[in-house]
Amino acid sequence: AVPLVVAKSTALSAKHGLLIKNRTAFENSRKITTIVFDKTGTLTVGKFEVSKIVLLDKGVDEKELIRLASALEQNSEHPIATGILQKVKDLKITIPKAENFKAITGQGVEATVAGKKIRVVSPGYLKEHKFTMPDGFTANDSETVVFVLIYNKLAGYIALSDKIRPESAEAIKTLKDENIKSILLTGDNNKVAASVSKTLGMDSFIAEVLPHQKLEKIKELQGKGEFVAMTGDGVNDAPALAQADIGIAVGSGSDIAAETAGIVLVNSNPKDIASLILFGKATYRKMV
Ligand code: ADP
Ligand code: MG
């Protein structure tokens, strides 16, 4: 009888937007005490729109700043890149060629455009490389910001906004009702993370984390006795997903993430995670 109940549950869960790749993951879902959520595309819609272009140096204008950034971003699949490329398209700007493109893991991109070394990077990258934060830096709480560097000069920044998914608040609330803590873990900046976590009533947030730090964070929580589920979409998330007690790959993310995870969240809807847990609890109650 046991396998039958589980088989039925697994089929049902597929209908609810979940792909359970191994039965242990489903069985263990009722033991979860903490869920670590990634932000972009899971708790938020994952569609960035350029909201502001701010100049920090007189050498370039707004169009030139985003034109240079777009040269790099055409080589990236990050949602930030998609947002910047959309804006450039709207402005009917022709994207120049970039050479020696390199992704700076979890922090940005760099390349050479018309002989100039250009970087498009996170505030965390600037701190790490000892750049002084510009006075004109006034991005608001809900904005993601990327800085454009020409050689070693801060030329300006591009602010982008994403929206919280309408289902996220209810998902977090359901988890809270089940005594499950929710933590936001993101490579995005502190302000954005604080704002999303507060809006959704999450227990805490950790921002500006680099890919390897995600793994460390999961270990740390496990060391405190937490049974940890984690969501993620990127190649970068794979080690942390593997370390978590239950790895949940989100939506149309990377194949590597999906391979590593025990569960795939097909519609990227955080409410499906809450359903899964309630469902797991109900299923295994029946079997006792
Ligand atoms: P998350 O944890 O939300 O998935 P990532 O690790 O993908 O975040 O990215 C962290 C940060 O690195 C972004 O918020 C951004 O500042 C910077 N970044 C990453 N990729 C790019 C890119 N293609 N262009 C500009 N900035 C990027
Ligand atoms: Mg990501």
Automatic annotation (TrEMBL):
Domain of life, source organism: Bacteria
Compartmental location: Cell membrane; Endomembrane system
Family membership: Belongs to the cation transport ATPase (P-type) (TC 3.A.3) family. Type IB subfamily.
Protein name: Cadmium-translocating P-type ATPase
Species annotation: Mucilaginibacter terrenus
Designated gene of the protein: cadA
